[in-house]
Write a structure and sequence with these properties.
Layout: H1 3-17, E1 22-38, E2 41-59, E3 62-68, H2 74-86, H3 111-115, H4 120-132, E4 137-153, E5 158-175, E6 178-186, H5 194-207, E7 212-213, E8 217-223, H6 225-238, H7 241-245, E9 266-268, E10 290-294, E11 297-298, H8 305-310, E12 319-325, E13 328-333, E14 338-340, H9 347-352, E15 356-370, E16 375-388, E17 391-397, E18 399-404, H10 405-410, E19 412-424, E20 428-446
Parallel strand pairs: 7-17, 8-15
Antiparallel strand pairs: 1-2, 1-4, 2-3, 4-5, 5-6, 8-20, 9-10, 9-14, 10-11, 12-13, 15-16, 16-17, 16-18, 18-20, 19-20
Length: 448
């Protein structure tokens, strides 16, 4: 038994002895290296290690959880957590935790990432490539991550996993208002595309020179994976059964109905090789591929044990981190690695077949006026390129996409063959694997 697994088992025993009927203990040991760079130079290089335990306890239907940072006093704090749970209000939505003993598919760890001591080389490669493609200012981050996790549960699951990944973000400027953004995210060090990522960011920045204020009206939008990742961030949350229950999802009462064009198949696949691959969810159930939207039709929400019972279905093994909800403390089900399945188009073909449109590199500040109806706006950032009669004719600026997310999904008419894993802060999280898509007739307004 590993040291982490032993710690999880001991804390579980404390919870049980203190009177918990149900308990889940996750113990994590993570190491992160970070490089920050700007103006073509490295500003900071940091390294940190964090060990902590997330403990969930239930006494009857009274539930409570805590992220325990002080591992020297973890046993005492676990016992105190159970005492506080006994005095907490009932959680009417609690339906128990996963039960059974399971077999897990372990990830193949890239030891070269774990052994990496100086991650500055790919940063310099990215900077040089961006500058060689017209960038005068280059900045971004590189993260090297290594995480070990062990889980123990009174329901029976006992599991451990280990993952490592690298993600590089490059933002290049050719002028103050002309920028391009590209990322490379991978669980394999040999697959890190530093030069290509820097070159792409520099190329986009160069194409974005001398932008003019964009026109308002209806446009076809060609969306890069990084832009699409920002939209996928909110869509993934809306696919949670809990979000459906509390009225924060456009997908409520739409199982079996057309919610997107037939070009769209949306899955959650934490089993594929990615930076967010995981062998089990936060209840200890083995993760699996779940098809959420198939050829535009909504097939399922994502569930944990409690939401599955309330919806009279089975868990999809998507129990997520513990969060406060209307049902006190509960694990919110969440997709772990969203994927939009590739289509039949090359990206160049999508552009060539676009009469009046915009090619959008990235976005931020995606906000919803109404989560239940899906009315939203988002502000494109970095390269905004105008398309006329199948050709990119110049850059634009100061625009906003103001439309409806269901209308957006239903208006997808082209999906590229190529996909890319993208991850960027909270704007494009969780990590997702996405193609280039075209969306017909979206509303563009001005942003100041």
């Amino acid at each position: 038994m590993s040291a982490l697994k032993e710690t999880a088992a001991k804390l579980l025993e404390v919870a049980r002895d203190s009177g918990a009927d149900d308990a889940i203990v996750e113990v994590m040991d993570s190491t992160t290296s970070q490089i920050r760079y700007s103006s073509g130079r490295i500003d900071a290089s940091n390294w940190w290690n964090e060990k902590h335990a997330v403990v969930f306890v239930a006494v009857g239907n009274r539930t409570l959880s805590s992220d325990i940072k002080d591992m020297d006093h973890a046993k005492e704090l676990t016992g105190e957590l159970v005492l506080m749970a006994k005095a907490s209000p009932p959680n009417k939505g609690y339906g128990g935790i996963a039960e059974g003993r399971f077999k897990y598919s372990r990830s193949r760890l890239d030891r070269s990432i774990v052994a990496l001591r100086d991650p500055s080389r790919p940063v310099h490669e990215a900077i040089n490539a961006a500058q060689s493609h017209g960038a005068i200012d280059v900045g971004g981050t590189l993260f090297v991550r290594h995480e070990k996790v062990a889980l123990a549960s009174t329901g029976g699951p006992s599991a451990e996993d280990e993952n490592a990944s690298v993600d590089l973000s490059v933002r290049a400027f050719s002028q103050k208002e002309a920028s391009g953004h590209a990322v490379s995210c991978t669980p394999r060090l040999a697959a890190l595309k530093a030069k290509e990522t820097g070159a792409r960011a520099g190329e986009l920045a160069n194409m974005a020179k001398d932008p003019i204020p964009g026109d308002e009206g209806k446009f076809d939008l060609v969306l890069e994976p990084l832009f699409l990742g920002g939209i996928t961030h909110s869509l993934a949350h809306m696919m949670s059964a809990l979000r459906v229950e509390i009225g924060l999802s456009v997908f409520a009462k739409k199982i079996g109905k057309q919610v997107a064009s037939k070009e769209v198949t949306f899955v959650d696949d934490p089993m594929i090789s990615s930076t967010s691959r995981r062998a089990f969810d936060h209840e200890g159930m083995p993760t699996r591929r779940n098809t959420i939207i198939k050829d535009g039709v909504l097939k399922t929400y994502v569930h944990n044990t409690s939401t599955a019972k309330r919806f009279k279905t089975k868990s999809t093994a998507n129990a997520g981190p513990l969060v406060p909800t209307l049902f006190a403390m509960a694990t919110q089900p969440m997709p772990f690695h969203p994927v939009i399945e590739p289509g039949d188009w090359h990206t160049d073909e999508i552009v060539e077949e676009t009469k009046r449109g915009l090619y959008l590199n990235n976005t931020w500040y995606t906000r919803y006026q109404n989560y239940a109806t899906g009315d939203f706006s988002t502000i494109p950032r970095d390269a905004i390129l105008m398309i006329e009669n199948g050709e990119i004719v110049g850059p634009a600026k100061n625009i906003r996409v103001s439309d409806n997310v269901l209308n957006m999904l239903k208006s997808v008419d082209a999906v590229s063959k190529q996909s890319q894993e993208v991850y960027w802060w909270d704007e494009a999280a969780p990590p997702s694997t996405l193609p280039v898509i075209r969306v017909k007739g979206m509303t563009i307004t001005r942003s100041s």
